[in-house]
TrEMBL record, chain A:
Signal peptide extent: 1-25
InterPro entries, alphabetized: AhpC/TSA, PRX-like1, Thioredoxin-like_sf, Thioredoxin_domain
Ranges where the record places region Disordered: 25-50
Protein name per its UniProtKB record: Thioredoxin family protein
Residue ranges of every copy of the Thioredoxin domain listed in the record: 59-209
UniProtKB/TrEMBL annotation, chain B:
Entry GO MF terms: antioxidant activity; oxidoreductase activity
Membrane-traversing stretches: none
GO BP terms, alphabetized: cytochrome complex assembly
Highest rank taxon of the organism: Bacteria
Lineage: Bacteria, Pseudomonadati, Bacteroidota, Flavobacteriia, Flavobacteriales
Entry keyword Chloroplast: no
Domain Thioredoxin stretches: 17-165
InterPro entries in alphabetical order: AhpC/TSA, Thioredoxin-like_sf, Thioredoxin_CS, Thioredoxin_domain, Thioredoxin_ResA/DsbE_sf
Keywords: Cytochrome c-type biogenesis, Disulfide bond, Redox-active center
Protein name: Thioredoxin domain-containing protein
Origin species: Patiriisocius marinus
Gene3D superfamilies the record matches: Glutaredoxin
Amino acid sequence: MKKTSLLFMTVLFLSSFLITTNISAQERQGPPPNGEHKGPPGGGHNPEQTESLKQMKGYKIGDTAAYFKLKNIDGTMFSLSDIKNAKGYIVVFTCNECPFAKMYEDRLIALHTEYAPKGYAVVAINPNVSASNEKESFAAMQQRAKEKQFPFVYLADTKKEVFPMFGALRTPHVFLLDNAMKVQYIGTIDDNARSAKDVKVKYVEEAIASLENGKKPNPNFTKAIGCPVKAD
Amino acid sequence: MRIGFLFSVLLIPFYFGMINSNITTTVVTSFDKNKTIPVYDFEELEPLLYTNDDKVYIVNFWAMWCAPCVKELPVIQEYKKNNPNVEVLLVSLDFAEDIETKLIPFLDNKGITSKVVLLDDPDANNWIDKIDPTWSGSIPFTIVFDKNNRSFHERAFNTIQDLENVLIQTTKNN
């Protein structure tokens, strides 16, 4: 009798644990923890990540950039040779949707406004332009440029040929060329993407000042977090 | 004798029940409603990139705004599920003010249960090189390491097998 009740109690005791386990197992099923996510969220992005820095070809400091022709948002074909009396070019790979690119839009406008009259125009190129992504389409570029009243050209790298030539990996990514098309500075615009007022070092402006003084920019290469350039 | 046998048989499901229960508890509580995501600068993050223990670590730099990163998260999540001994740390480069309103709901929605910290350090040109001089700053970026070995990956892992191979390669000299 005693043994039976002991067994009974044991069974009851152990069953309670099994019930608990089952309940938590059920809860865990709620949001599928490992669901296959078909396609990325956030509106039709269809990116393919480029390979690493080491595998990525592109211009190094001192290389001479080749001329290229890309379609500007006004519908005309644009080449750097269209800028007369240039002392240099602030070539920047940027796009519509990247939060980091957006944080720099106003600073790019300010750069162009100040430096274009001095011979250094901003030339913005969207390497992520995509007909299948409504946020990075040519029409969306036109729309964004209109909203922000970009004073500079905003070119579509539709065939994805120009950004690999430069070796642009992220947006925004600046390549400062001198008047002989030599790459003099590669990197970020300044040292604080989040907050323009907390910027301590304005890398691009310092690089231009160096060129103006006949010196090599120092630093001539900086890094930053940015959105991946999409090679799709 | 018979009772003793029955008792041990009954203990078997109990034992497994406990194991499952423990795993389940970890999974459920690691991202409950009270979850807070610590915000670190690089100095605070850096110790988490090294270890003295015997585990293998995967540290993945990502952000909600980075589409390839978002696509990769389920691969890392699934790998962690199959390899509970591997420690996963997701370093979000999202904005600190978005933690409550966007990041936590995003992680909940995706069922991401790994440890997440947010790196908020504007001087990226400084800390990117301290992590890996060959890293351009593009994400996703993943470090696989144990106490003796380390490898860096400036790309997305598209399959679990891909990640598995990298872990094997990285730790094969142990």
